[in-house]
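Mods, move this if it's the wrong board.
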Amino acid sequence: MAELSCESPPELAVCSLQKEIPPRYDETRPAFILTTTTYGIDINDHPLGSQLPKAGQDQTFLSPSSDFFSSIVCHPDSPRELADWIYTYRPQLHIHASLVQDATLLTINYLHTFSDAISQTNSFEVWIAVLRGHEGEVPAFVPYDHDPLYTLGKEAPRQSYRNIGRLLSGLSLVIFGLRYMFEILWSPKLEGHPIRLPGRCVDQMRKTVLQELAINAPRGTKKPFVSEGDVVVACAAGLIGNSFFYSYTLLLAGKVLQDTDLKYVAFTNRKALMEHRTKQQIEAMTAIQRENFMKAAPMVGDSKLLFMAATNQHKDRYFETDWSAAVIAPGVPLSGRPHALGRPSYVNDIEYCRGYPTRNIVRIIGKDAAGDWHLLFKARAGA
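Not the wrong board. Structure tokens:
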């Protein structure tokens, strides 16, 4: 596992990052860091642990900010900014376990240069396979010099991208940038807002949307489809961008405000996803991105747009990871909880970010064993 370092001196504003693999791993330069903190009490007796959201309460719930729980879920020495990694011999992965008498809080602290959400799930699967003694299920390691996306978009015609005529450039891009900068200067402080949506509410909203779409569908055509994720995102933000590559959904603000049954937003999202998730569209989008300054993702729309994004981490199935092989004894009795032995009851997503735009983003953390949906909003303070 590589360490992260900076080629430039700390007094310079620009830093060129590089990964360095030590000649060998030892106590001074470990491959990863594993720490534990033990509390001799139940989780409900801990002043912070008792405030962690409980599964199966069947109500919409606005939780405290994810960072509010950092003192119980994170090690005091865990990294919180880039300097904590690049100016020390610290590996990019820090695993911390907080142990109470009836629960275990497992925290995975890592950089995006090391992993993303999907590959983190793959790491969990490998870890769990080893815990079960099924080391034969561990896939072969892919060498660092192998990049499966190396040729992606290099031969695709950019003109085949469906939104090529609506790419922001020139004066429109400058105006959008100025408006976005004004928003940051006017409201610099951001807040994270974890929210739980009861599963029964999402099911009812999806049923209503499907009924409305079926009524308005032309005779003889295939019944329209929207997923639970479409409905959750429509309810939360009105714009979806949920995968490694971007899928832009252009919506009219007036229609969004009038869309009380979520039909317009949910179906428009689904339609955009179906159009933009083809190999041709991904290749064309990547071709455009390769030609952009600093290979930045293109912006679609006009200079007056309000950019909002959603990332569907439900695809990672965090709530379905099975850690039962690591369970010594049940904490909360199985009869008193909806989740099975060794399955997570809550996922607390803390993001440390500086100098990177993360406002107006909603993460769909996932669907728990009780059927409730967990979301995390990042918006300006007071929004």
